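User: Second chain of the day. Same drill as before.
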Amino acid sequence: MSNSWIGVRSVGLLGTLAMAATAGSTLAQNGFTYVKATANIFGYGLSTPQPGGGGGGTLANVIALNGGTGRIAAFSSGGQAGWAGGNDNGPDGGTFSSTTNIGAVGPISGYNGPLSGQLVGVFIEAGDISALSAPGGMSYPDLASYTAASYAPGLRQVFYIGDGKTGTGSGAVQGFYVPDGAAYLVLGIADAFGFNADAGYYDDNVGGYETSYVIVPAPAAASILGLAGLLAARRRRA
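Assistant: Same format as last time:
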C-alpha cells in the first residue's frame, strides 16, 4: 500500500484550532515527547525491542490516542541525533547514509526512502497485533516525496515525519491523516547496519528529537495546517 498525498486547505483558524486542541473537546489532544535516537520503531508491543545486530535500542515512544474519525495529526520537531559517534543530523534526516532501506519486522512495515536517521512514526490499532501481517511500506522515491502537504499512512505502516514541515526548518506544517481505528501513535527511528539491512544497530545512537504533536478531530482537522504557531510555541516551552 503506497502513501496517499492529499492537499489540506488552511483556512487560517489558528485560534480556533488552539482551543480545540487544548480545551473543550474530549477528542482533541496535544503534547510533547523526547524521542531518543535509540527508540526502535519496530519494537512496538514487545517487552524489549527486536535486538537484531548491534542491539535493539530502547522502546519507542507510545502515545495513546483519543478515539474518533477524521483525525489529523501535525508535528513540530527539533534536536540532533548521531550515529556511530558522529554524523549528527536533525529530524529531517542526514547523510550518514543517502538512503534507508529496512524490511518489515513482524506486523510493522519496512521503511524505504532518502536520507537516514529521520523521525518516523507508525499508527497502531488496539489489541494484540503480533499475529498480523505487515502492510507494504509507504512510497518515498525521492526527497520531493518528503515535502507533500499531507499524507495518509495506514495502520502499522511506518511513515516519515521529520520536522513536520514541507521544508527543512521552514515551510508549511504537514498534516498526517490518522487511520480510523488507530489507538496508538508510536514515534522512533528506523535503524539498521548502515541504514540498509535488517532492523537493528540502535545501541551506538546518541541524542534525539524534541517533538510536539497535535491531533485534531473533524471538523477542526480541516484547518490543521494553521497549527504551526501552536506547535512551535509548545516545543519552545518544553
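The chain has one domain: 14-237.

User: Great, on to the next one.
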